[in-house]
Design a protein that fits this description.
alpha+beta, Rossmann fold, Beta-Lactamase, 7 domains, 32 helices, 42 strands, 24% strand, transferase, histidine kinase, Sensor_HK_Regulatory
Length: 1055
C-alpha cells in the first residue's frame, strides 16, 4: 500500500488545449484545487501543443472539441501518431454528450461533457486521474515483464512455461539449446506432442499433479534417450499455467557417487593418499590429503605441484618431483623383480599444512593395474617427534630477533612495537598481534601486525567484546588453542572475527595498567601453549611496557617543552636566553613588545640591552649567573630601541648543557616603570593627605585637592564642588587654572541636569571615555571629552576631565579615587569641626541664657521669700511659688532641648495626624481650635514629635490669644507638612533668630519652645522655616532635608 500511495502522490502534468482563453484559465485554476497533484499547462493551438510535448513531460492531453480551424479529434489523431499511449480526453458540450469515444476517433481515451451551469470539472479531474493512473500502471507492468524476460534469458537454468492447455508459451535459449529446437517454432505447440518421449514418465505425472493441486514441485529426473541426462526440476503452477526451471545435474551426480565411493574406502585412513598421473595431475586424493592441504575435499584434476609449490621447501619439492618421475618410469616394468618392496621410494618432506608446518614421511609406488602411468603417493605425519626440537630452535631465533629489535636505536616506538609483534607472530605461529590501550571499558588498538588487515591502529572496541577482558580481569597471561573447546563460541570475538586461538599478557606503564599485548589466529592449534611460549609472551609484555613508558616520558618531555615555549612566548615579560659572551639565542614576543627589537634582529647578535656605560654591571651579572647563582628581582634601568629609558625588575637563572656545564642564562625582565610612577604618586598623595589633615577650612581643603590633582596626578582640568543642603545644589569651591580656562566661571550644579549630578546622587564613581556619547552632559558644546567624577560622600564632588577621548586608564581612576577619599575625609573632619564650633558657641550661648533666665526667677523667688517671711502674707508666698514654677518650666525646656538634638534611632511608623491630636490634649489652649488635615505616616520618635506639636500649639496660644485657630495639614508641593495659625504672626525681622535659644518675644515665654521645635526637626531630618499664614498668622513649614537629591531617610513617608 505504501508504494501505491507514493505513486498516487506523484504530480500529474496536464496539457489543456482550448482556444477559449477565459475558460482555459478557469480550468487551469480549478483543477489543482480539486486535486493537488495536477500541474496544468495551457495551449491554444495545435502548434503550441507539440511545442509543449517536446519541451516537457506530459501525462495527459485534455482538448476542447473545437479549436478554431481544427477540431479536438484532429489534435488527438496527431498526438497518437507521435505517442500512441499518451492518455487523451475530449471535452464536448451538451449537444454531443451521447456520442462515444469511438465516434470521435479511435485515438480518444475518454470524453467528458461540459455544461455551462454544471460542475463538470470534478468529473474531468476524476477522468484525468483514472487515465493517468492506469497508463502509469500499464507502463510499469510492461517494464516489469520486459525486465523479467531479460532476466530469464540470462539465467543459467533452462526455463519454459505452458498455459493451462499445455501449450508452450515461452522457451528460453538455454532450454532450446538443450532440446535442440527453435524457440519460435515450438511456441503454441502442445508440450506432449512436441516432446513425446516424456509422455508416460514420472515427469508428466508430477507436472499434471502440480497443475491440478496448484502446489509447486521439485525433483530430480533422468530423461531417457534421446536426451540421456539427469535434470533437477522445479515447477511452479499459477492460474495461467505452469513455469518450469530445469538444471542439468548429470556431472554432479557422477562426481557425488565417485566421492562417496572414495570416502567409503578411505574414510578411516589417517595417512595422506594421492594417485598421480605422469603429469602430476591428481587422479584421486583422500580426505586426509584435503585436511592437510586445508582446502576443499575435491582435488581431482588439480596438479599436485601447484598445490605444494609454495608450501614445500624448494629442496624437498625437487626431491619429490624426481621421486615421482622415477616411479612413473618404473610403471612400464612388468614381472618379478620390478619392485624392491612395498614402496619403491621413501623420502621426508616438510609441508605447510592447514594447521601449520608438518613433516611427512612420503612413500611412492607405481600403480600397474591399468594401462595409464600412475603413481600411488602415501604420506604419514611424523611432525610430533620433531616438534620439540623445532620449538627450541624457534625460541632461540625469537630471542635473537627480539635482541635485534630492542638494540636498534633508529626505530621509532611505532616501528619497534610493530617489529616486536612480528617476532611474536612468527614465534607463536599466530596470524595477528596487537598492542592495546585499555581505559575502563574502552579497548583501543595501539599497534597491530600485520598492517592493512581487518584491524587498524586506532580502532576501538568494547573491552567485553575482546578476549583481552580475561587478561585484564586476572592480570596474568591467558590463552586457549580452541575457542569452542574453551567455551567461547558465544563470545563476540569469536562470533565477529572467528578467532580460534589466543594468548595475551597484561601491560603496565609507570605502575598503572595500560592494556595488553596479544596474539590470535582464526585457526585452532593442536597443542596448548607451553610454558616456554607463555614465558615468551610475558617477556614481550615487559619489553612493550618499557617501550611505552619511554614513549610516555618522551611525550611528557615534548609537551613540557611545548608548554614552556608557549608560556615563554605568551608571557608579558621579556624573556631571553644569552650565552656567556652576551650573544642572544632566544628573544620572546614579550621582549619584542617591551624593547622594540624583533627576534630576527637580535638572535645571534650581541645583546642590545648592554649599553657601553653598563658593561661593568653586565659583567657582574654574568659572573654571578654563570657561577650558578640566581638574580631575583633586581631593579635596573634599560634603554629601548626608541631611546626611552625605563625601569625593570631583572631575574636570571643558569641553564646547564647536556654535560652539566652552565653555558647559557635565562633572563626575565618585568617593566615596572608605571609601578615606580605609581609608587611616587602614592607617596605624593600620602603627603597630600597629611596636608589635608591639618587644613583649617573647606576652602583650604579644596585648594590643596585641585593642586594635588594637577601637580601629583597630572590631572590639570580638575574642579571641586560642595553640597549646599539649603539650596539643594552643588556649589563650586575652586578649580585648577586649566579648568578655569576651559569653563570660565565654574557653574553650580543642580539636580538632574548633568552627569556630575547623576554620579553625586548615585554615590558612585563614574568614568566616561567620551561624554559626547551621553545625552545628560551639562554643556552640549563642551570641549571636555573624558571625565572622572568621584562623589565626596554627602559633602560634594571632585571632577577631572580631558579634551581627548579615552584619556584615563584604571590607574588614573584609582589614584583620583584615593585623592577624593582623602579630600572627603578632610571635608567630613572640617564639617565636624565646624559643627563642634557651632555647638560650643551654642553651649556658651546656652550657658549665658541659663545663667540669665534661671537667675531672674531665682532672684525673684528669693526676694519675695524674704518679704513673705517678714510679713507672712500669702500673696508673697504665691509669688515665690510662681517663680519656682517658672524655674521648673525652664528646666523642663532645657531637658527637652538637650534631648531634641540627638538623632532619631530605631524610629517607628508614626501617624502625624494622631500625634497632633494627642499633643493638643496636653496643651492649655482655652478657646483655641485645631483643624488636622490628612497627614503622612513617617518614621520617627513619637515622644519627641508630640513635644514638637505641643511647643507649636503653646507658642500660638501664648502669642495669638485664647481664640486662635490652628491648622495642621500636608504641603501641596510634596513631602512635608505645616502648622499655621491665624494670630498676629511673626515679623520678618524676627524670623532669622526665632529658633535660637532664649529668644522670645513674649514676656511669659522661656525662649526655648521654638528652639526645641527646630532641634526635633533636625533630629528627624527636616528643615523648618517660618512664613506668613494664609490669614495673617504664622506658618511653620517642615520639609525633608535633601541628601544627594532625595529626602532624608528619617523624613521619608511610609504612606
Amino acid at each position: 500500500m505504501d508504494g501505491l500511495e507514493d505513486r498516487r502522490g506523484q504530480p500529474i502534468c496536464v496539457l489543456y488545449v482550448d482556444d477559449d482563453a477565459e475558460f482555459a484559465e478557469v480550468v487551469e485554476t480549478e483543477l489543482p484545487r480539486i486535486d493537488s497533484r495536477f500541474d496544468v499547462t495551457l495551449a491554444g493551438t495545435v502548434d503550441e501543443v507539440f511545442e509543449t510535448l517536446a519541451a516537457q513531460p506530459v501525462d495527459c492531453v485534455v482538448t476542447a472539441s473545437s479549436l478554431g480551424e481544427q477540431t479536438g479529434i484532429d489534435l488527438v489523431d496527431s498526438v497518437r501518431k507521435s505517442d500512441e499511449n499518451l492518455p487523451t480526453i475530449l471535452c464536448t458540450d451538451g449537444q454531443h454528450e451521447q456520442l462515444t469515444p469511438r465516434e470521435y476517433g479511435v485515438g480518444v481515451s475518454d470524453h467528458v461533457t461540459i455544461h455551462v451551469r454544471r460542475d463538470t470539472l470534478r468529473l474531468l479531474a476524476s477522468a484525468i486521474g483514472t487515465l493517468v493512473d492506469a497508463s502509469r500502471a500499464t507502463k510499469r507492468a510492461d517494464e516489469t515483464i520486459d525486465r523479467f524476460r531479460r532476466t530469464l534469458e540470462r539465467a543459467t537454468d533452462a526455463v519454459y512455461s505452458v498455459d493451462t492447455e499445455w501449450r508452450i508459451e515461452y522457451l528460453n535459449q538455454k532450454m532450446a539449446e538443450r532440446v535442440g529446437c527453435d524457440p519460435d517454432a515450438v511456441m503454441g505447440s502442445i508440450l506432449w506432442e512436441e516432446f513425446p518421449s516424456i509422455v508416460g514418465t514420472e515427469l508428466e505425472t508430477k507436472y499434471r499433479t502440480a497443475m491440478e493441486t496448484g502446489e509447486p514441485v521439485s525433483f530430480e529426473q533422468y530423461l531417457e534417450p534421446p536426451f540421456d541426462y539427469w535434470v533437477e526440476i522445479r515447477a511452479f503452477p499459477d492460474d495461467d499455467g505452469l513455469t518450469v526451471f530445469s538444471r542439468e545435474i548429470t556431472h554432479e551426480r557422477e562426481q557425488t557417487h565417485e566421492l562417496e565411493r572414495s570416502k567409503a574406502i578411505l574414510e578411516q585412513v589417517h595417512d595422506v593418499v594421492f594417485v598421480l598421473d605422469s603429469s602430476f595431475d591428481i587422479q584421486y586424493a583422500n580426505p586426509s590429503a584435503a585436511r592437510a592441504r586445508g582446502g576443499p575435499d575435491e582435488m581431482r584434476g588439480m596438479n599436485i605441484l601447484d598445490i605444494v609449490d609454495d608450501r614445500v621447501p624448494d629442496e624437498d619439492l625437487a626431491r619429490f618431483r624426481e621421486a615421482v618421475s622415477k616411479t612413473v618410469s618404473r610403471t612400464n616394468v612388468r614381472g618379478d623383480g620390478a619392485q624392491t618392496g612395498l614402496y619403491d621410494t621413501d623420502l621426508q618432506v616438510t609441508f605447510d599444512a592447514a594447521d601449520g608446518p608438518r613433516t611427512f614421511d612420503v612413500r611412492l609406488t607405481p600403480l600397474t593395474e591399468t594401462d595409464e602411468d600412475r603413481v600411488l603417493v602415501v604420506g604419514r605425519d611424523v611432525t610430533s617427534h620433531q616438534e620439540i626440537k623445532r620449538q627450541l630452535e624457534r625460541e632461540r631465533d625469537a630471542l635473537q630477533a627480539v635482541q635485534r629489535v630492542m638494540g636498534d636505536a633508529d626505530l621509532s616506538t611505532d616501528e619497534r612495537l610493530a617489529k616486536l609483534l612480528d617476532v611474536g607472530r612468527w614465534t607463536l605461529d599466530l596470524d595477528v598481534g596487537i598492542v592495546s590501550d585499555i581505559g575502563g571499558s574502552d579497548y583501543v588498538v595501539r599497534a597491530v601486525s600485520p598492517a592493512g588487515g581487518g584491524v587498524s591502529v586506532g580502532d576501538r572496541f568494547d573491552l567485553e567484546s575482546t578476549y583481552c577482558e580475561a587478561v585484564v580481569a586476572s592480570d596474568e597471561v591467558c590463552s586457549f588453542v580452541d575457542a569452542v573447546e574453551a567455551g567461547r563460541e558465544s563470545h563476540p570475538a569469536y562470533r565477529e572475527f572467528e578467532l580460534e586461538s589466543y594468548i595475551g599478557a597484561p601491560l603496565s606503564v609507570d605502575g598503572e595498567r595500560f592494556g595488553t599485548v596479544n596474539f590470535s589466529s582464526p585457526n585452532s592449534r593442536d597443542v596448548a601453549f607451553g610454558e616456554i611460549e607463555r614465558t615468551f609472551v610475558e617477556l614481550l609484555g615487559e619489553l612493550v611496557s618499557a617501550e611505552l613508558a619511554r614513549e610516555q616520558s618522551r611525550c611528557r618531555l615534548e609537551q613540557t617543552n611545548q608548554r614552556l615555549e608557549s608560556l615563554i612566548q605568551a608571557a608579558p615579560m621579556a624573556i631571553m636566553e644569552v650565552d656567556e659572551d652576551g650573544h642572544v639565542h632566544h628573544w620572546n614576543h614579550g621582549a619584542e613588545a617591551m624593547f622594540g627589537w624583533t627576534s630576527d634582529e637580535v638572535v645571534g647578535e650581541q645583546n642590545p640591552l648592554i649599553p657601553e656605560d653598563k658593561t661593568d654591571e653586565f659583567e657582574i651579572h654574568r659572573k654571578q649567573t654563570f657561577s650558578g647563582d640566581r638574580i631575583r628581582g633586581k631593579e635596573v634601568r634599560r634603554q629601548t630601541k626608541s631611546g626611552e629609558v625605563r625601569d625593570y625588575l631583572l631575574s636570571t637563572a643558569p641553564v646547564e648543557s647536556a654535560d652539566g656545564d652552565i653555558d647559557r642564562t635565562i633572563a626575565v625582565l618585568e617593566d615596572i616603570t608605571r609601578q615606580k610612577a605609581l609608587e611616587a604618586n602614592l607617596r605624593a598623595l600620602q603627603q597630600t593627605t597629611q596636608e589635608l589633615s591639618i587644613a583649617s577650612s573647606v576652602d583650604d581643603i579644596a585648594e590643596i585637592a585641585v593642586d594635588a590633582a594637577a601637580t601629583v596626578l597630572d590631572l590639570d582640568v580638575t574642579s571641586i564642588w560642595q553640597y549646599d543642603d539649603h539650596r539643594e545644589m552643588l556649589v563650586p569651591l575652586t578649580e585648577t587654572s586649566a579648568a578655569r580656562g576651559l569653563y570660565g566661571e565654574t557653574p553650580p550644579l543642580t539636580p538632574g541636569e548633568s552627569l556630575a549630578w547623576d554620579a553625586f546622587e548615585a554615590g558612585e564613581v563614574r568614568a566616561y571615555d567620551d561624554i559626547r556619547e551621553y545625552d545628560n552632559r551639562y554643556n552640549d558644546d563642551t570641549e571636555i571629552r573624558s571625565e572622572i567624577i568621584v562623589p565626596l560622600g554627602q559633602d560634594g564632588l571632585l571632577l577631572t576631565g580631558s579634551t581627548s577621548p579615552h584619556e584615563f586608564n584604571e590607574q588614573d581612576v584609582d589614584l583620583f579615587r584615593i585623592l577624593a577619599s582623602s579630600v572627603g575625609a578632610a571635608l567630613v573632619r572640617a564639617k565636624r569641626e565646624g559643627e563642634l564650633r557651632q555647638q560650643n558657641e551654642r553651649l556658651d550661648q546656652f550657658a549665658s541664657v541659663v545663667s540669665h533666665d534661671l537667675r531672674n526667677p531665682l532672684s525673684v523667688a528669693t526676694g519675695f521669700l524674704e518679704i513673705a517671711e517678714e510679713t507672712g502674707e500669702k500673696a508673697y508666698f504665691e509669688k515665690v511659688e510662681s517663680a519656682h514654677e517658672r524655674i521648673e518650666d525652664l528646666i523642663d525646656d532645657l531637658l527637652s532641648l538637650a534631648r531634641g538634638e540627638r538623632p532619631v534611632e530605631d524610629g517607628v511608623d508614626v501617624g502625624l495626624d494622631s500625634i497632633a491630636n494627642e499633643a493638643w490634649e496636653y496643651v492649655d489652649t482655652a478657646d483655641a481650635t485645631l483643624s488636622v488635615g490628612e497627614l503622612p505616616t513617617i518614621t520617627g520618635d513619637p515622644s519627641r514629635l508630640k513635644q514638637l506639636f505641643e511647643n507649636l500649639f503653646r507658642n500660638a496660644a501664648e502669642h495669638s490669644g485664647d481664640d486662635v485657630s490652628i491648622t495642621v495639614d500636608s504641603l501641596d508641593r510634596g513631602h512635608g507638612f505645616y502648622v499655621e495659625d491665624d494670630g498676629v504672626g511673626i515679623p520678618p525681622t524676627h524670623r532669622e533668630n526665632i529658633f535660637e535659644h532664649g529668644v522670645s518675644y513674649s514676656r511669659s515665654g522661656t525662649g526655648f519652645g521654638l528652639s526645641i521645635v527646630a532641634a526635633i526637626a533636625r533630629a528627624h531630618g527636616w528643615t523648618v522655616t517660618v512664613t506668613d499664614g494664609a490669614d495673617g498668622g504664622a506658618r511653620f513649614e517642615f520639609e525633608p532635608r535633601r541628601i544627594h537629591g532625595t529626602a532624608s531617610k528619617e523624613a521619608h513617608s511610609t504612606r
